[in-house]
Each structure stands twice: as C-alpha cells, then as structure tokens.
Amino acid sequence: TPAVFAGGFKDGDKMDDRNLRALIEELKTCRYLKDKLQIISTLVGSLRDLKELLKECFWEEEYLSVFALLSDAEKEYLRRDILQRQDDSSSLDPWELALLKSEIPPATQS
Fold this sequence. Notes:
The protein has helices at residues 17-29, 33-43, 47-57, 63-67, 72-86, 94-101. By secondary structure, it is mainly alpha-helical. α1 runs parallel beside α3. The longest helix has 15 residues, at 72-86.
C-alpha cells in the first residue's frame, strides 16, 4: 500500500499517462505561479507525478514555492530518494539540486 503523507501526497498511484501529459501542457501554458500551485494542490496526489511536473513545468525560481506545498515528511522522502539515486551515479535534475540545497528541518521524534 502506498505511503500517504501529511501534505496529502502519496508514494504511488500515478496519474494516467494521457492525463499527466495533458496536465503538463496545461501547466506549461500557465502564466502565473499561483495558478500552477493551485492546479498542483487540486489535481496532483502522487509524489511520482509531482516529480515529473517539477522536471517539466517549473522554473528554478519556482521550486521553493512548490516545495512549500509539501509536508516535512514528503520533502524528506524526496530528499532520501534523490540521495539514494545519487549513489548510483545518476545525474540530478535542477529541481532535485534545489531540494537538496533547501532547508529541511530534522524529523521530529515522538
């Protein structure tokens, strides 16, 4: 079963490829960041889809605004995924570098 995070995103449950491609095209034509963020908040429930959208639809100066939509646990999950793949000598996308450079508070222990 996919992990569900406090911010509402899941690890898994990808969007149908045709719908994802249509969403990418819609986001590419969006003029305003606030509109892009609203679309992400409303239509995207999968971290896998979000990673694809970050790669295809957002500019470097927009990444932090997208990251602000995520819970600390979601950011930490993405960060760990990036670091794990980085160990495999794969190159990183610009959004991945931005996430690694951004401040992520340490996970709170209960």
